[in-house]
C-alpha cells in the first residue's frame, strides 16, 4: 500500500517530532490540534528543530525549514483526514481525550486508512475497540526526540492483522526507522519497565536517599546509560510519566505501580520537565 498522506493528531512534543520526521522524509503531513495558537507554536518548534539539526550536523542530510514546513498542513479541521492513508494519534495519555478523538476521526477517514496510536501505556486493543476498523489499528510508540531515534516499538493489538503491521513497518522504513513488534499489554515493553524505574527513582528523592544528580550519575556511570532516569523523565514530561504510571497502576492493580506522591506534587505544581523549563533540573525554555 502506498502512503501519500499521513494525519498527525496532537501538536505536542511527540506530534511535532513525528510530523517533522515524516516531512523530512518527503511524506505529506496533516498536523491537527485544537487551536491555531498551538499549531503556530508547533510551526516555530519545527523550524527551530531543523535549524538545530543543521547547526550540529544531526539528523542526516541538511534540510531547509521552508521545504519541510511546505510538506505540513497545519489545521484544526479534522475533515482534512478524508484524504489520509495513515493516521498517527499523539493525544495526552487520558482515556476520555483519546475516546473523543477516535469517535471523531473514525467516520471521516477512508476505509483503507490505518490508525496508529502513539501511546505510552494504554492497550492498543482497548483503543481499537473505539473504532469500526479494529484490524487496522496498531500501536507505534515513538521515542523522543523522534527525528533522532531509529527504532520504534510497534504493538500488535488483538485484532491487528499482518497486513496492518506490514503497512506500519513500511511507513517506518520510509522514515529510516526500524519497528520492533511486541504484543499488546499495558505499557508494552519499554514503558512497563521504564515508568517503574522512573517512579522508583522519584521515591529515592522523596526518601532523601540521593539527589537527582547522584541518581542519574549512577545510571550513566555504572550502567552506561546515555541519560539517567530523572533526566529521561524531564525529557518525556513529568505529566506524561504520571499519566502512564497511573494507567499501569489501574490496569494491573499492583501496588508496585503506585505513583510517587512527589511526582504528583511536581505535576500539580507545573514542574513538567524540559517543556515547562523546570522538572528535576532547570532548563532554558527557549531551547525547547
From TrEMBL:
The keyword Repeat does not apply. One of its GO terms (molecular function) is oxidoreductase activity, acting on the CH-OH group of donors, NAD or NADP as acceptor. CoA binds at residues 49, 58, 120. Residues 5-184 form the 3-hydroxyacyl-CoA dehydrogenase NAD binding domain. Pfam families: 3HCDH, 3HCDH_N. It comes from the Bacteria. Residues 187-283 form the 3-hydroxyacyl-CoA dehydrogenase C-terminal domain. Keywords: NAD, Oxidoreductase. One of its GO terms (biological process) is fatty acid metabolic process. NAD(+) binds at residues 10-15, 33, 93, 98, 120, 144, 275. The record marks 141 as: Important for catalytic activity. PANTHER family: 3-HYDROXYACYL-COA DEHYDROGENASE FAMILY PROTEIN, 3-HYDROXYBUTYRYL-COA DEHYDROGENASE. This is 3-hydroxybutyryl-CoA dehydrogenase. It comes from Chondromyces crocatus. The gene is paaH.
Amino acid at each position: 500500500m502506498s502512503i501519500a498522506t499521513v494525519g498527525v493528531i496532537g501538536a505536542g512534543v511527540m506530534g511535532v517530532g513525528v510530523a517533522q520526521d515524516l516531512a523530512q522524509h518527503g511524506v505529506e503531513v496533516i498536523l491537527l490540534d485544537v487551536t491555531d495558537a498551538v499549531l503556530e507554536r508547533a510551526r516555530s518548534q519545527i523550524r527551530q528543530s531543523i535549524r538545530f539539526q543543521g547547526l550540529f550536523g544531526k539528523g542526516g542530510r541538511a534540510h531547509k525549514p521552508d521545504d519541510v514546513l511546505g510538506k505540513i498542513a497545519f489545521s484544526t479541521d479534522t475533515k482534512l483526514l478524508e484524504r489520509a492513508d495513515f493516521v498517527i494519534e499523539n493525544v495526552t495519555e487520558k482515556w476520555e481525550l483519546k475516546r473523543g478523538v477516535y469517535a471523531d476521526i473514525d467516520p471521516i477517514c477512508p476505509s483503507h486508512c490505518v490508525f496508529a496510536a502513539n501511546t505510552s501505556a494504554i492497550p492498543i486493543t482497548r483503543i481499537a475497540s473505539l473504532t469500526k476498523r479494529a484490524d487496522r489499528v496498531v500501536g507505534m510508540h515513538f521515542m523522543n526526540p523522534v527525528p533522532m531515534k531509529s527504532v520504534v516499538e510497534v504493538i500488535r493489538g488483538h485484532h491487528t492483522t499482518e497486513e496492518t503491521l506490514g503497512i506500519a513497518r513500511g511507513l517506518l522504513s520510509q522514515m529510516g526507522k526500524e519497528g520492533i513488534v511486541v504484543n499488546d499489554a499495558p505499557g508494552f515493553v519499554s514503558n512497563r519497565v521504564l515508568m517503574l524505574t522512573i517512579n522508583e527513582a522519584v521515591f529515592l528523592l522523596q526518601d532523601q536517599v540521593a539527589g537527582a544528580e547522584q541518581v542519574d550519575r549512577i545510571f550513566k556511570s555504572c550502567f552506561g546509560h546515555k541519560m539517567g532516569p530523572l533526566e529521561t523523565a524531564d525529557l518525556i514530561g513529568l505529566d506524561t510519566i504520571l499519566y502512564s504510571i497511573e494507567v499501569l497502576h489501574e490496569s494491573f492493580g499492583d501496588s508496585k505501580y503506585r505513583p510517587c506522591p512527589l511526582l504528583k506534587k511536581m505535576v500539580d505544581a507545573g514542574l513538567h520537565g524540559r517543556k515547562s523549563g523546570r522538572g528535576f533540573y532547570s532548563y532554558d525554555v527557549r531551547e525547547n
